[in-house]
Design goal:
The complex is a heterodimer of chains A (187) and B (178). Chain A has 187 residues and is an all-alpha fold. Chain A has six helices and one strand. In chain A, helix 3 packs across helix 4. The two termini of chain A are 38 Å apart. Chain B has 178 residues and is α/β, with parallel strands linked by helices. Chain B folds into two domains: 30 residues; 144 residues, Glutaredoxin (3-Layer(aba) Sandwich). Classes of the chains: A mainly alpha (187), B alpha/beta (178). At the A-B interface, helix 1, strand 1, helix 2, helix 4 and helix 5 of A face helix 1, strand 1 and helix 4 of B.
Chain lengths: 187, 178
């Protein structure tokens, strides 16, 4: 027979399943498009045309990077940025044209002396916080960060309480039984 | 029913229902653009004929920027509407198309077969699409006379939205622009 204490446990599981996880992707149903060759190689653009990201970002706050140092910095940034067309994939892990373009933009900015934080912020300002693979721990996002620990804590307390009740109930039943035995044997 | 069990159940189920209610009221395919209300990123792009369009030079006139591609079916759907819009507000609103990860030759062929509603600008490296935070075509940005993004359409723009935003854009007095 199902006990009343099973209800909170089942509800907790339901709550856990309903929670949005930090890396859960929101579906993008827009046309993924074919993988086309981008006209510009990574970090190389035709001068005078395009968009000046520096106008949006302000002055670079770091040192211009190159070589292996630049490759490492691009990899670090790319690992933090979600591919807009993919399901929970970073632009480092995706082969989509959009991810390719964003890696190229990150490379171009880092090579110009923009810091990792500036580059990540640039993408966030364009696409919104959704583009961050790990949402920032603030506002409603705090639910996502704290809920797992809170669920484990509350669940643990419930289990501990149930065990204590069971033990206490067992002791009381044993005492009552012994008392009954004692009374019957005395007569 | 045991009152305590009822309270515990409610305490657990209500947050779940709130989370689900919040989720069901929002379209998971729509991500709000943080650029609404912000200055439109400036760009200079060449069209298929090599003519350069500078967004800064269009300041003072509302602009509709549509990111599109020939492989995108909703782009075909909205094409006649954009044609009609560009015809209706000719000289009052600039209509610009930015090619989103597509071959210029395919765009030229599409334009030849279906007509054009504005210049098709070549976005090398997709940098302008990144600056506008475009997830995928079609996306349409509506920019007022001051160069501020006032609205954005994800997917094929509807006639109602186009009419509504165009009316708002044109109702902004020209002399108020800076």
């Amino acid at each position: 027979m199902r006990r009343a204490t099973d209800i909170p446990a089942a509800a907790f599981l339901l709550f856990l399943a309903a929670l949005p996880l930090p890396t859960a992707a929101r579906a993008q149903s827009q046309d993924a498009g074919p993988d086309v060759d981008l006209p510009a190689a990574e970090g190389e653009y035709r001068p005078g045309l395009g968009v000046e990201a520096s106008r949006e970002l302000g002055d670079p706050q770091g040192e211009p990077l190159s070589g292996e140092e630049l490759d490492r910095a691009v990899s670090l940034v790319a690992a933090d940025i979600r591919c807009p067309k993919c399901q929970a994939l970073s632009i480092a892990d995706s082969g989509a044209s959009s991810a390719q373009a964003m890696r190229a933009e990150a490379r171009s900015l880092l090579a110009s002396g923009y810091t990792r934080d500036q580059v990540v912020r640039y993408f966030e300002q364009r696409y919104g916080e959704f583009v961050l693979l790990e949402p920032r721990a603030r506002g409603l996002n705090l639910i996502v960060w704290t809920a797992p620990a809170a669920i484990v804590l509350v669940g643990g307390l419930l289990v501990a309480r149930r065990l204590r009740q069971r033990r206490r109930g067992g002791e009381e039943a044993l005492a009552a039984y012994l008392e009954q035995v004692e009374q019957e044997t005395a007569t | 029913m045991n009152r305590r069990v009822l309270l515990i159940g409610l305490g657990i189920c209500l947050p779940v229902l709130l989370v689900l209610g919040f989720g069901f009221r929002h379209d998971p395919q729509v991500v709000e653009s943080p650029l609404i209300g912000q200055p439109a990123p400036s760009f200079r792009l060449a069209d298929l004929d090599g003519n350069v369009v500078d967004l800064e030079e269009l300041r003072g006139t509302p602009v509709v920027i549509n990111f599109w591609a020939t492989y995108c079916v909703p782009c075909w759907v909205e094409h006649p509407l954009l044609m009609e819009g560009a015809r209706r507000w000719q000289g009052e609103i600039h209509f610009l198309g930015v090619i989103f990860q597509d071959e210029p030759s395919l765009i030229a062929q599409f334009n030849a077969e279906n007509g054009t509603w504005g210049p098709s600008l070549i976005d090398e490296g997709g940098r302008v699409a990144i600056a506008y935070g475009v997830y995928g075509p079609p996306e349409t940005f509506f920019i007022d006379r001051d160069g501020t993004i006032v609205d954005k359409a994800i997917g094929a723009v509807s006639p109602e939205q186009l009419l509504d935003v165009a009316t708002r854009l044109l109702s902004q007095p020209a002399e108020a622009t800076g």
